[in-house]
Specification:
Elements (H helix, E strand, L loop, with lengths): L6 H6 L18 H4 L9 H12 L20 E6 L4 E6 L11 H12 L5 E3 L2 H4 L13 E3 H10 L3 H12 L2 H14 L22 H11 L3 H6 L4 E4 L8 E4 L11 E9 L3 E10 L2 E8 L4 H19 L1
Antiparallel strand pairs: 1-2, 1-9, 3-4, 5-6, 7-8, 8-9
Length: 314
């Protein structure tokens, strides 16, 4: 499989694919985050005030030391506590950006609502030609829809995604119309899709805020919730003996206590993206990171920050 390309190749790719990742070090120095990406300088005090306004408009007593960094290492961030709905940290969370393969969260939700997992879907020529990341599925192979769903959520396989999209929607344009209708139903006012798998496009965008709302809705579905927390799976076509081993692209799973998914994404335009759900010590956190060069270190710091804040409040 072509799932382990070098970084120089990945940086030129216009389609969703996973990055080559190192292990997430729990003791990784915070200075790594500070060196990640340097947008226009935002002082800790200004960011701290934004944190107050996002919660209650009042001083919550958070010190400068509680803010994970002085220069935000991502283009957009949203961290919230799900039980209370309280925003713990945000930066440019309503800015429209390319969502890359985070798109597949919406695709999966539509598939789960309109399809049956035991339905059999045939891999079309169009799906078999899908650009990386892919499993190199063969034209004419038949898969259970549930297995295609596993492949698109766990390893972000675009050939599996397109096959599932075409099966449920009839064709991709009709399926995209269903995605946009669902976005409207969920009140995602700054989200619009132009394809089913997350390829960059002028009319393909969302925000950290909308993606958080979408993820909350998707996590209400028990099948979705179980799939995105699986570290590995095996799928086999109905029409053959070949098996495909799936390793989850979310490197937080099994490395940080309480992580329950949700999805990774990457394109040259979107950068490295992540949505993570964390349930630990009585706290339920949802984190959205868009376009971060060091998403794993950034995620680790924000998760630690969120757990510390929620434990302090309790």
């Amino acid at each position: 499989m072509d799932m382990q390309n070098n970084r120089s190749q990945r940086s030129r790719m216009p389609w969703p694919m996973p990055e080559s990742l190192g292990a997430v070090g729990a003791g990784m120095a915070l200075s790594l985050c500070l060196l990640a990406w340097s947008p226009p300088t935002v002082s800790a005090k200004a960011m701290q005030q934004k944190h107050y306004n996002a919660e209650t408009g009042q001083d919550a007593g958070v010190s400068h030391q509680d803010v994970p960094w002085r220069i935000v290492p991502a283009h957009s961030v949203l961290l919230k506590e799900l039980r209370s709905g309280r925003v713990l940290y945000e930066y440019e969370s309503e800015k429209r950006m390319s969502p890359a393969s985070l798109t597949k969260i919406m695709s999966a939700l539509v598939i789960l609502e309109r399809g049956r997992l035991d339905e059999q879907a045939t891999i079309s020529k169009n799906a078999a030609r899908a650009p990386k990341t892919h499993l190199r599925l063969k034209t004419g192979d038949v898969f259970r829809l549930g297995d295609l769903l596993k492949a698109m959520l766990i390893v972000s396989a675009n050939d599996a995604c397109l096959a599932a999209v075409e099966h449920v929607g009839g064709d991709e344009p009709q399926f995209v119309a269903l995605m946009n209708a669902k976005a409207f139903e969920l009140g995602l006012n700054d989200t619009h899709f132009s394809n089913g798998c997350g390829f960059d496009g002028v009319e393909h965008y969302s925000t950290a805020g909308d993606l958080a709302r979408l993820s909350e809705a998707a996590m209400q579905n028990s099948v979705f919730r179980e799939l995105v927390r699986e570290e590995r799976e095996i799928i086999t076509p109905v029409s053959g003996r070949r098996t495909y081993l799936l390793h989850n692209t979310n490197r937080l799973l099994g490395r940080i206590p309480g992580v329950e998914g949700v999805k990774t994404g990457f394109t040259s335009k979107a950068g490295r993206c992540l949505i993570a759900k964390v349930s630990h010590n009585g706290s339920d956190l949802l984190l959205v990171i868009l376009n971060s060069k060091r998403r794993w270190n950034t995620a680790k710091s924000l998760i630690d920050y969120g757990l510390r804040i929620t434990e302090t409040v309790r």
